[in-house]
């Protein structure tokens, strides 16, 4: 039992799961699950008790049973004891102070990363202010490569997301070229298809590959379909760059997605065998989001933010090019308003980066949440200062297929101009060569006869 005394009142927490859950900032998903603190005072008492907890406790007491959960087995069996050694003597509170110390630099964080478990990262995040999460995440460096280099300090990449509600190839092409002319697309050109039809998925892969090859764009493509569909596409000889899959923090939740670790490994090996990367071989793309375990009734009483951090253990195992938290997409049942979405985005980014995962964020909300675009502007600005790996670029910030609000090509221009952030270097050189950006990264006026615009009639022939 964990306990502490606050204002002459004793608070008792029955086990580590309860302590972690009640130390979490208030959010609707934890209330829905019945694990949240009942009062702000109880939440503070839980944080005080959590701060005194030795980090090594998380190696001795697992939140989801080892025998029942392959994610737990992955976390425990892959734990790097030598990397953990420099921080093994710390409590959660000491760990916070160590992370914030000026002496703890990027190289130091990289050396201990493999020794930090998701539960340790989640625990320390619960006793940190927003500014703490931003400052530490800024110091974390996670660099990945496929056809360009993502995650360099002072850089921010953008996923160009040209979705269409009917998978219209001309409509997708128009959005894609629009994004390219605004300088978006260096993270990936990624389509969420409305259909699971293999022939249609194959057409989308060939279209993306044709555009990238025809204009020699140093970026990668991805059709965000289920991993089993991607394996079938590889078997059919389709030009697959990245393998996509949504992942969650428990074996049961992943089973609901129709996946397990063995399947992900099979897909990674299949993609690596294609040898389509030119500067690196990070071939996986994962998406996550707080609330996924709860929505699948697969959280085992663990709070949603800790479940989310556990998903990053899976991402770390497969060395992805990209991982992003789709922070406000699941809805207000899990993150009720702008305040909760902002906090969750900062937590997820911090935990992912601390664990050595290249974490981006889909800064987004659904229309029935108590949030608006001003909240998204705030979160994007905060994440930009925190060293966000990549963001979303969607026409008008309004995804007409998935029906949610995200960030636009113009938002990417804003954050780059505000903070002086650059494109992936290979992509930046291409933008200059194509006369889309100048040498200072400023957008040029594009003439109507730009070669990219001439591509539109060709797309209608697919």
Automatic annotation (TrEMBL):
GO terms for cellular component: cytosol; ethanolamine ammonia-lyase complex; ethanolamine degradation polyhedral organelle. One of its GO terms (biological process) is amino acid metabolic process. Keywords: Bacterial microcompartment, Cobalamin, Cobalt, Lyase. Substrate binds at residues 159-161, 192, 287, 362. One of its GO terms (molecular function) is ethanolamine ammonia-lyase activity. Its cofactor is adenosylcob(III)alamin. Pathway: Amine and polyamine degradation; ethanolamine degradation. Adenosylcob(III)alamin binds at residues 193, 245, 295, 401. Binds between the large and small subunits. Gene3D superfamilies: Aldolase class I, ethanolamine ammonia-lyase heavy chain domain like, lyase. InterPro entries: Aldolase_TIM, EutB, EutB_dom_2_sf, EutB_N_sf. It catalyses: ethanolamine = acetaldehyde + NH4(+). It is found in: Bacterial microcompartment. The keyword Secreted does not apply. Its EC number is 4.3.1.7. The basic unit is a heterodimer which dimerizes to form tetramers. The heterotetramers trimerize; 6 large subunits form a core ring with 6 small subunits projecting outwards. HAMAP family: EutB (MF_00861). Belongs to the EutB family. Catalyzes the deamination of various vicinal amino-alcohols to oxo compounds. Allows this organism to utilize ethanolamine as the sole source of nitrogen and carbon in the presence of vitamin B12. This is Ethanolamine ammonia-lyase large subunit. It comes from Yersinia aleksiciae. The gene is eutB.
